[in-house]
TrEMBL record:
Transmembrane segments: 21-44
Protein name in UniProt: Deferrochelatase
Chain segments carrying region Disordered: 226-254
Organism, as annotated: Peribacillus butanolivorans
Entry-linked Pfam families: Dyp_perox_C (PF20628), Dyp_perox_N (PF04261)
């Protein structure tokens, strides 16, 4: 899947933009979008269709932990939450086996299925990623609370293995959640530096799941591209502020073990090496924000917009002093600012991995339908995300400009070794 090399920077920019614009409209949610009626049928026979060349944009699928969590965030996201329609546990296990093999091949830059000249049959691979590079594709799988029990039913004999932390989030003040953007039995997070590659991954995994799964909701996401920001600065959200400054250090294994990876004793052993993913679809009132003066914007976030520095400081990563006061005795960083409330006492940390979205116009208001697909990872949601969000939901000045439309929690499975399959520890 080698990416074509354009003759000049202009043509490269045009190709990237055209791909992105073509697929942004795919971020449409809907309960019960039917994918098909028959299973994929056994393990895949996969063929390498990658052209000569690039190997430096491959993120290995196999490992102790799943890729796509501490991996450097790619330019684009395609996220899908699925409902499981089969009642057969063996079908579900086979699906995860098929997905494992397909995901390993696609992240390596290969297409799904043997090439065939039989024009009377659909091709095994949908074809839109042919000749494209792997683009640092990662595919991350998670399972939701409803995979274990739904309407009081133990669906696959897994009820006893459901972690206490795997549950719907409490309802927070000002939430306006919609079923069409919430929940899911299984999630697939595909991230890549090319949106067409990410979409191809989810599309083909969903295709493999015919007769066993249907899409519950799906969303595309983007951030600034690596080409546009060669310095790899902290990405900015659609309000123009840096997002992710306070993340724990992904390269520090002790911090990741403390805040992100599930450890022995945290719950069921099958999730050790995994992590809990919280997803919140946050709509931004773009037009209202655009009419707000800069000083008010900065007081809302608690940071300077241009530098990302805490108010009163010069640099993005300068030490935060929430008690600092101006000459009039007022706190420099307002108590109701987003940073002040999200930080709290500084002990509860989450690994933020958000992506912006833009889905055209909101038909209800005639305004831009845009915002943030907030994704974060943690070891214990009830001790990390929940207390943070409880503070934000009650007092965050940012609430004047946003509203939460979707919510979901997933247990992201541990990594897998070659010869095994994703979710194997759960089904033992």
């Amino acid at each position: 899947m080698k990416e074509n090399t354009p003759n000049d920077e202009t043509s490269l920019f045009t190709k990237k933009v055209s791909r992105r614009n073509m697929l942004k409209t795919a971020g449409v949610g809907g309960v019960g979008v039917v994918i098909g009626a028959s299973g994929f049928g056994g393990l895949l026979n996969l063929s390498d269709s990658k052209a000569n060349g690039q190997t430096n944009d491959v993120v290995p699928f196999y490992g102790t932990n799943q890729a796509g969590i501490t991996t450097e965030a790619q330019d684009n996201l395609y996220f899908a939450a699925l409902e499981v329609t089969t009642d057969n546990k063996s079908d579900l296990i086979q699906l995860f086996k098929d997905w494992t093999e397909a995901a390993a091949q696609m992240t390596a830059g290969k297409l799904v299925g043997e090439a065939s000249l039989n024009t009377s049959m659909p091709p095994k691979d949908t074809g839109e990623a042919k000749e494209l590079s792997p683009s640092n594709l990662t595919i991350t799988f998670g399972v939701g609370p409803t995979l274990f029990t739904k309407n009081g039913k133990d669906r696959f004999g897994l009820k006893s293995k459901k972690p206490a932390e795997l549950k719907d989030l409490p309802k927070f003040p000002l939430d306006a959640l919609e079923d069409s953007w919430s929940g899911g039995d299984i999630c697939i997070q595909a991230c890549a530096d090319d949106l067409q590659v990410a979409f191809h991954a989810v599309r083909n995994l969903v295709r493999i799941g015919r007769g066993k799964t249907i899409i519950h909701w799906a969303q595309t996401g983007f951030q600034r591209t690596k080409q546009a920001d060669s310095q790899k600065t902290t990405p900015r959200n659609l309000f123009g502020f840096k997002d992710g400054t306070a993340n724990p250090d992904k390269k520090n294994s002790s911090e990741m073990n403390e805040h992100v990876w599930v450890k022995a004793g945290d719950g069921p052993d099958w999730l050790v090496g995994g992590s809990y993913m919280v997803v919140r679809r946050i709509q931004m009132y773009i037009e209202v924000w655009d009419r707000t003066i800069l000083k008010e914007q900065e007081n809302t976030f608690g940071r300077h917009r241009d530098s990302g520095a805490p108010l009163g400081m010069k640099n993005e990563f300068d030490k935060v002093d929430l008690e600092a006061k101006d000459k009039n005795g007022n706190r420099i960083i307002p108590e109701d600012s987003h940073m002040s409330l999200s930080r709290g006492d500084g002990k509860a940390k989450i690994l933020r991995r958000p992506y912006s979205y833009a889905d055209g116009m909101d038909p209800k208001t005639g305004s831009l339908n845009a915002g943030l697909l907030f994704i974060c990872y943690q070891r214990n949601p009830s001790k990390q995300f929940v207390p943070i969000q409880e503070r934000l939901a009650k007092n965050d000045k940012l609430n004047e400009y946003i509203i939460h439309r979707g919510s979901a929690v997933f247990a992201c499975l541990p990594g897998v070794k070659k010869g095994g399959y994703i979710g194997e520890s759960l089904f033992r």
